[in-house]
Amino acid sequence: MQKKLANGVIVIFGASGDLTARKLMPAIFSLYQQKDLSKSNIVLGVSRSEFDDESFRQKMQEALLEEHPKEKKAIDKFLSQVFYQQIDVYKDEGYVCLQKRLKALCKTHKLEHNFLFYLSTPPSLYYEIPQHIAKLGLNDEHDGYKRIIIEKPFGTDEQSAQALNAHLLQHYQESQLFRIDHYLGKETVQNLLVFRFANAIFEPLWNASHIENVQIYANEAIGLGSRAGYYDQNGAIRDMIQNHLLQLLGIVAMEPPAKMDAYSIRNETLKVFQSIRRFKSAEDIKENVVTGQYQEGCVQGVCKGGYRDEEGVAANSTTETYAAIRFFIDNWRWHDVPFYVRTGKRLNQRVSEVVINFKATPHPFFSQVQKITKFKNQLVIRIQPDEGIKLSFAAKEPGSGFKTHEVDMGFYYSDFAQKSMPTAYERLILDALQGDNTLFARNDAVEACWNIIDPIIQYVQKHGKSLLSFYPSGSFGPIEADKMLAELGHTWRNPSSVFKQKK
Ligand code: BG6
């Protein structure tokens, strides 16, 4: 049940940046529109850039109008509750100014000292800002909550994540820290919990006795954009697999939690991360990991150069823009079931799915009369776009004999006509305001995910050149990834862009 929100201030560090304009402000605006954020919650943007309240509002107005061109009046009303404070985030004086401003705003608007600090800054500031805030006592919850949302990347490997956690936990309780992974905020990802644990019929099948393989992927049609500085240092495994896709895998593979609360759910996903078989040797990695980089080609009719032609990328960069990894989970439920995880940029289309491929019938009954001798049921959970769930099964064609066809039954979010899908950021900001960290990553889980990924990254960094396969933009990715699945007789689902069949 939704709790009534306490009044307070959302303080966004890095307020002049792209994420604030593109994702955070639209999400907060939408929460205002739905009255989830009462009038008594205000927003304070903070950064080094030179703005005052008015010029900052103007910048935010432009961003919001792009998405909601007809809602100028509502936007302006919302922006009257948005303020700006310029500070030098490296200097003590800056935080003293910030503290004064917060006090003054709370007094004028009659607000409690409830502060949600959103760090939408370069990761190097994840040390600096929380420490400075704590120094001024703004971590002390005696007069209201003090919470921090931290964007990814949370560390660059296990060691740095541990160090960052240790640093933050010196000043804050774990319950005050919200490590954001926006995939967990997606409606379809949350619905996975409902699908699995509110329906009795799927759970008995959800194991190695009935499932042949699981595929979890986030394919993107976009390329690098203007993010060379960040992306070329990180690559697809760090950018997407260490966080978003492993979190998804955790939800797909977890045991039913003792309760539907943050503590119990996060305990179960942690156990999955702890049970993922670690890659122990170079051979192991070569067998189970495919990396790729996009070359020139056309995506949906738009033709562009390759990754190495992008601005800011070296002509000999070996950074992977695609990765496919075969994981195994060493526990009773998932013994020897491959979990194929993949992601890539400039693929043929944007689509994220979880695909459960069930085993074929033990005996192919209709083999003489049907082309598909071994029919396998497939359950597809479409994370985005065209969100929904589809289960395929075999059906008999009317008439003599037993000619069978693959058909499906489905649920499509578009059928919930009256409800629009909230964005991941809307959901997550609201949860943080309510103090619910179920959909945020816990310190131990983040470290465990790095522990899985670290050996792969080390290998890729050392042998990137020899491991890297190239794929044309607009394709399904490198054929080496198809070969990896073929070794065990499996194939990728390469979905068509239309998920819901038109009636
Ligand atoms: C971000 C990655 O976390 O997720 C981006 O840094 C990626 O590289 C994005 O494009 C994908 O998010 P979504 O919600 O569009 O699937």
UniProtKB/TrEMBL annotation:
Recorded catalytic reaction(s): these are: D-glucose 6-phosphate + NADP(+) = 6-phospho-D-glucono-1,5-lactone + NADPH + H(+)
What keywords would UniProt list here? Carbohydrate metabolism, Glucose metabolism, NADP, Oxidoreductase
Q: Which GO terms describe its biological process?
A: glucose metabolic process; pentose-phosphate shunt, oxidative branch
Provide the binding site for substrate.
182, 186, 220, 239, 345
**Which Gene3D superfamilies does its entry note?**
Dihydrodipicolinate Reductase, domain 2 (3.30.360.10), NAD(P)-binding Rossmann-like Domain (3.40.50.720)
Keyword Oxidoreductase in record: yes
Origin superkingdom: Bacteria
Q: What is its EC number?
A: 1.1.1.49
Question: Which residues are in the Glucose-6-phosphate dehydrogenase C-terminal domain?
Answer: 193-493
Q: Give, as in the UniProt entry, the pathway in which the protein acts.
A: Carbohydrate degradation; pentose phosphate pathway; D-ribulose 5-phosphate from D-glucose 6-phosphate (oxidative stage): step 1/3
Q: What InterPro entries does the record tag this protein with?
A: G6P_DH (IPR001282), G6P_DH_AS (IPR019796), G6P_DH_C (IPR022675), G6P_DH_NAD-bd (IPR022674), NAD(P)-bd_dom_sf (IPR036291)
Q: Where is the Glucose-6-phosphate dehydrogenase NAD-binding domain?
A: 11-191
Entry annotation: catalytic residues: 244 (proton acceptor)
Q: What class of enzyme is it?
A: oxidoreductase
- UniProt-annotated binding residues for NADP(+): 48, 88-89, 152
A Pfam family name for this chain?
Answer: G6PD_C
Q: What is the residue range of the signal peptide feature?
A: none
Which PROSITE patterns does the UniProt record give? G6P_DEHYDROGENASE (PS00069)
The yes or no answer to whether the keyword NADP is present is: yes
- GO MF entry, a single one: glucose-6-phosphate dehydrogenase activity
A GO CC term attached to the entry: cytosol
Q: Report the function annotation for this chain.
A: Catalyzes the oxidation of glucose 6-phosphate to 6-phosphogluconolactone.
The UniProt entry, under NCBIfam families, shows: zwf
Membership in a protein family = Belongs to the glucose-6-phosphate dehydrogenase family.
- Would you tell me the protein name for this molecule? Glucose-6-phosphate 1-dehydrogenase
Species this protein is from: Cysteiniphilum litorale
